[in-house]
Amino acid sequence: MTKPNIPARAEAVRERLARRYPVPRTELHWSSPWELLAATVLSAQCTDARVNQVTPQLFATWPDVEQMANADVGEIEVVIRSTGFFRNKAKNLRAAAARIVDAYGGQVPRTMEDMLTLPGVARKTANVVLSNAFGVQAGIAVDTHVKRISFRLGLTRETVPDRIERDLMKLFPQDDWGAVNHYLVLFGREVCTARKPACPECELEDLCPKAGLATKTATKRKPK
């Protein structure tokens, strides 16, 4: 059996998904780097749709990072309760805001090293903010969709996000790292879902090894 050419597969995936998503972007609503950071923190184990329902009140109550740094954690908890894990998220939001005010003059930092000093911020959140807010491609954000699809496509055999990210960074051009995250996230929501992937309708089916996916789980929809 011929050894699969994984770099060629990755390039085909990138090209096809770029055609499907010509203007890839996060579905979180934000108007400043701080708002994107806060929304991304809230999105952990929560849908973007739910976060977008919560953030208008959050940002209206505490319009900037300085006000968030001085907010009452209990009051933040009330506003973000529906996003889940609200106590920890509220604590991290205020602490991250305080760190930004004290260490970075009220400006969200623009490097991975500095972003990782913020409470509640790991590589996934840092990558989302750096790429979308500043155009800095420091890595590829790995969430549940990226993890699932990159494994199914045989682009990685890793299961730990940081290791998955390293594998993907080797396969895609750095200028496209942010877009690749969006491609895989959007594709994971629309086509390659966790429980019922629409394999027969998938533009990647001919090159997908369906790693970890039992054939019977792939669903075929009736023609319209």
Number of strands: 0
What is the tally of helical segments?
11
* Percent of sequence in beta strands: under 5%
What does the overall shape look like? elongated
How much helicity do the residues have?
Answer: 40-55%
Q: Taking all residues together, what is the mean pLDDT? A: 93
Element order: H for helix, E for strand: HHHHHHHHHHH
Question: What characteristics describe this protein?
Answer:
disordered C terminus, mainly alpha, 11 helices, 224 residues
Explain the overall architecture.
The N and C termini lie far apart (38 Å). The protein has helices at 6-20, 33-42, 48-61, 65-69, 73-80, 86-104, 112-115, 123-134, 144-152, 161-171, 177-190. The chain is built from 11 helices and no strands. By secondary structure, it is an all-alpha fold. The longest helix has 19 residues, at 86-104.
List the helices and strands and how they pair.
Layout: H1 6-20, H2 33-42, H3 48-61, H4 65-69, H5 73-80, H6 86-104, H7 112-115, H8 123-134, H9 144-152, H10 161-171, H11 177-190
At a glance:
With 224 residues, this protein is an all-alpha fold.
